[in-house]
Write a structure and sequence with these properties.
The chain contains four helices and six strands, in the order E-H-E-H-E-H-E-H-E-E. With about 120 residues, the protein is an alpha/beta fold. It has one domain: 3-Layer(aba) Sandwich (Rossmann fold). The chain has a six-stranded mixed sheet, sandwiched between helices. Helix 1 crosses helix 4. The radius of gyration is 13 Å and the shape is globular.
């Protein structure tokens, strides 16, 4: 799996995913950094077949209306500490990977993994 972590999530999450063995980029590493447009992120996701990891509901809208990005992982955790967020991802990586075999849109909450499509 390859991830593209959006500006709404910490760079530390991208580093953690990379350390777990996943090809991961954060918007801070893109030419426009955290000012990278959603459309650029969607295009890059499709070109490189990356799962966009975000808290931004705009990506949910573009997923349903424009079939972009390639795949989407929405973090619906509310405001939690970065350490809690990283632990939540680590504890669910196997489930996330298994779900993305068939699904294209998954939502991670503090208590569950929801498969939308």
């Amino acid at each position: 799996m390859k991830f593209l972590v959006d500006a709404h999530l910490p760079r530390k999450l991208a580093i953690q995913l990379k350390e777990a063995g996943y090809d991961t980029r954060h918007t801070l590493g893109l030419p426009e950094g955290n000012r990278t447009t959603d459309q650029f992120i969607n295009n890059l996701s499709i070109e490189e077949q990356r799962i966009v990891v975000t808290k931004d509901a705009d990506f949910v809208n573009s997923f349903w209306l424009q079939d972009q990005p390639w795949k989407l992982l929405l973090a619906s955790t509310g405001n939690i500490r970065n350490d809690e967020l990283k632990a939540l991802f680590l504890n669910n990586l196997e489930k996330i990977e298994a779900a993305f075999v068939d699904a294209r849109f998954i939502e991670l909450t503090q208590h569950s993994l929801i498969i939308h499509a």
